């Protein structure tokens, strides 16, 4: 296992138990690579897309590393150093065939106070992952270690490969969790559950009715 893959597996996938589905899941999300962002400094970033790399300072694209790196303690970045950084990070993001090295999949079903999930990452064609329980949140944004899963529309995933490199993934999701998300009753049921009311109780029902007005 190379160093990059080792870092990913040990920093994220230690949360999961194994690679075998022991439950049935009725919701599914496939996450594919959107971009990877490498922070040279707090404001200067290399943005890696498939087929394109952009250098930005803040939110604005810039044309040369010198302008990008005035705020470094060790001074501006020269072309030689910039080329070395680019080559090192590019090899972490893309395979030799220039395809993204990472994709992800999330299968889950709803529980009373969260989601029973099976999460997997595919790194260089090898799948790693397992089961984990995720506590429910009102905003449908779930932090898991160095990873954040956003199940709003559009679904997204972010995770840190190291202190400076963050992957951004786009999701395609299906299942009753997403079909019901537009229903105000289901939305209020989730809200009242997250506030501590137990589903099926009178107080939970009162909470839902108040939110419905």
What is the first-to-last residue Cα distance? Answer: 57 Å
Q: Shape from CA axes? A: elongated
Largest sheet: 11 strands, antiparallel
Would you tell me the structural class of the helices and strands?
A: alpha+beta
Uncertain segments: none
Count of helices?
A: 6
Number of strands: 11
Explain this structure:
The radius of gyration is 21 Å and the shape is elongated. Strands 1, 2, 3, 4, 5, 6, 7, 8, 9, 10 and 11 form an 11-stranded antiparallel sheet that branches. With 213 residues, it is α+β, with helices and mostly antiparallel strands. Helix 5 (184-194) packs across helix 6. The chain has 2 domains: 1-173, no CATH class; 183-213, no CATH class. It is 25% helix and 38% strand. The chain has helices at residues 3-11, 65-68, 79-93, 176-179, 184-194, 202-212, and strands at residues 27-39, 44-49, 52-57, 60-61, 102-111, 114-123, 126-135, 141-144, 147-150, 156-160, 165-174.
Any chance you could write out the topology, listing elements then pairs?
Elements: H1 3-11, E1 27-39, E2 44-49, E3 52-57, E4 60-61, H2 65-68, H3 79-93, E5 102-111, E6 114-123, E7 126-135, E8 141-144, E9 147-150, E10 156-160, E11 165-174, H4 176-179, H5 184-194, H6 202-212
Antiparallel strand pairs: 1-2, 1-5, 1-11, 2-3, 3-4, 5-6, 6-7, 8-9, 9-10, 10-11
């Amino acid at each position: 296992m190379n160093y990059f893959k080792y870092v990913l597996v040990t920093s994220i996938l230690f949360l999961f138990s194994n690679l075998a589905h022991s439950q049935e899941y009725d919701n599914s999300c496939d996450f594919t690579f959107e971009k990877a962002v490498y922070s040279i400094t707090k404001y200067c970033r290399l943005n890696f897309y498939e087929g394109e790399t952009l250098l930005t300072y803040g939110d604005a694209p810039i044309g040369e590393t010198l302008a990008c790196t005035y705020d470094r303690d060790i001074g501006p970045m020269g072309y030689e150093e910039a080329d070395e950084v680019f080559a090192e990070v590019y090899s972490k993001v893309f395979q030799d065939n220039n395809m993204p090295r990472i994709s992800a999949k999330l299968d889950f079903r709803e529980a009373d106070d969260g989601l029973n999930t099976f999460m997997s990452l595919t790194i260089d064609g090898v799948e790693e992952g397992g089961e984990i329980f995720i506590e429910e949140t009102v905003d449908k944004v779930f932090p898991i270690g160095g990873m954040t899963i956003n199940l709003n529309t559009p679904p997204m995933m972010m995770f840190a490969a190291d202190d400076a490199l963050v992957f951004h993934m786009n999701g395609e999701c299906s299942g009753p969790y997403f079909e019901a998300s537009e229903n105000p009753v289901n939305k209020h049921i989730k809200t009242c559950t997250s506030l501590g009311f137990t589903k099926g109780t009178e107080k939970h029902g009162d909470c839902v009715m108040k939110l419905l007005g």
